[in-house]
Recover the amino acids of this structure.
């Protein structure tokens, strides 16, 4: 449980850096949104699976 948190935050930061560094607004914002949603869904499933 504790080991999952740093990995998630690191992934989120790297995604945000890629998004802010990119000049494409529409498609990249959508891709980032999907990626963030997928990460949160995955973490949610992991937490519910552990608990």
């Amino acid at each position: 449980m504790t080991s999952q948190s740093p990995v998630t935050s690191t992934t989120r930061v790297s995604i945000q850096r890629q998004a802010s560094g990119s000049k494409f607004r529409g498609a990249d914002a959508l891709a980032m949104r999907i990626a963030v949603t997928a990460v949160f869904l995955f973490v949610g499933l992991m937490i519910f699976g552990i608990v």
Residues 4-50 form one domain.
